[in-house]
């Protein structure tokens, strides 16, 4: 690992693009603390700062194959933190304004609107999680659950074995279950996804 510590940002970016996990770890170790401090200073909440930084690194790894570093990681990460904080604050402000409006009116019709928005938000979150699955995994998942294909039909359609289909479905369910298990949602119900 010592050799990675001596590499420039551009060298690490090149290795990252080729899928080098050790290069990713070096970038993470080199910049995580700085980003966390920057995010915490801007947002004023350590948990949210950590979430912002983790999202940035997760996004970096997901987009590694198409990643292009233009002005160094310090600049890249500073911009990413800035937009992460802006997005987080915008969501909080939007939610606070909506909750204030709901508390002010407090009618039954307004409660159904809140439930609709929460349900719509959940659908977007589920779709975003499905979109974050590996391409083939997401395709298999959508064919199974959105189009009601059997595992055999999926295997034939994609020219893969049924075992491979099963593995993709298992991976997708595991990821989605870990993200959404025990989510308390509409009408106080607890929804367990894909159990």
Quick take:
By secondary structure, the chain is mainly α. The protein has two domains: 105 residues, Rna Polymerase Sigma Factor, Chain: A (Orthogonal Bundle), CATH 1.10.1740; 90 residues, Arc Repressor Mutant, subunit A (Orthogonal Bundle). Helices cover 76% and strands 2% of the residues.
Polypeptide structure, described:
- The protein has 195 residues and is an all-alpha fold.
- It folds into two domains: 1-105, RNA polymerase sigma factor, region 2, helix turn helix motif (Rna Polymerase Sigma Factor, Chain: A, Orthogonal Bundle), CATH 1.10.1740.10; 106-195, Arc Repressor Mutant, subunit A.
- 76% of the residues lie in helices and 2% in strands.
- The protein contains nine helices and two strands; from the N terminus they run αααααααααββ.
- The protein has helices at residues 2-5, 9-17, 21-43, 46-62, 73-105, 108-131, 135-145, 151-158, 162-180, and strands at residues 183-184, 190-191.
- The chain has a two-stranded antiparallel ribbon with strand order 1-2.
- Helix 2 (9-17) crosses helix 3 (21-43), helix 3 (21-43) packs across helix 5 (73-105) and helix 8 crosses helix 9.
- It is flat, with a radius of gyration of 21 Å.
